[in-house]
Amino acid sequence: MSQEYLIRDANPNEFIKIGELMVKVYSQLDGFPSQKEQPNYYKTLANIGSFTEKPNTRLLIAVSENDEIGGGVVYFSDMKYYGSGGTAPQEKNASGFRLLAVAPTARGKGIGKLLTEACIELAKDEKQRQVIIHSTKAMQIAWKMYEKLGFKRSKDLDFKQEELSVYGFRLSLSS
């Protein structure tokens, strides 16, 4: 029997645990910069809860029936707080999400898709026209999932994070 996961906002007492999960997941990605190569990026991951101090920003988590955190993502209903390089923070009528991670022990259970769909639903509820995200070559599994959900590559959103190429995607919500 597969575990059921509930998507909800993280509580402040969970921020440290989620930060540890983010650091673990991103540091294990093949081809992704190490903590030594990009210490500030990993500091951002470790302090993931600080994103919730920004207006219109939420840290969503997937929690199992036995209260295990299976993954998390940061959702932005105002792109000016998105905090990426490139043009994404100037996008209007758009929501975005970043820093999606699934615990190694919870992979293959659809948690990434659940978190992504929760962000899409929030954007629809807010009557946004699009959802913007970024990915890297090291995140091919997620990349494929995003494309299956209707995200399209948007080269105008691409940027470099130090030496790392970061690729933009958008999902149009207009009918």
Structure characterization notes:
By secondary structure, this protein is α+β, with helices and mostly antiparallel strands. The protein has a single domain (5-172), classed as Gcn5-related N-acetyltransferase (GNAT) (Aminopeptidase). Helices cover 26% and strands 29% of the residues. The protein has four helices and eight strands. The chain has helices spanning 15-27, 39-46, 111-125, 140-148; strands spanning 5-9, 57-64, 69-76, 94-102, 130-135, 152-153, 159-161, 164-172. Strands 1, 2, 3, 4, 5, 6, 7 and 8 form an eight-stranded mixed β-sheet that branches. Strand 4, helix 3 (111-125) and strand 5 (130-135) form a beta-alpha-beta unit. The chain is globular. It starts with a strand and ends with a strand. The mean pLDDT is 93.
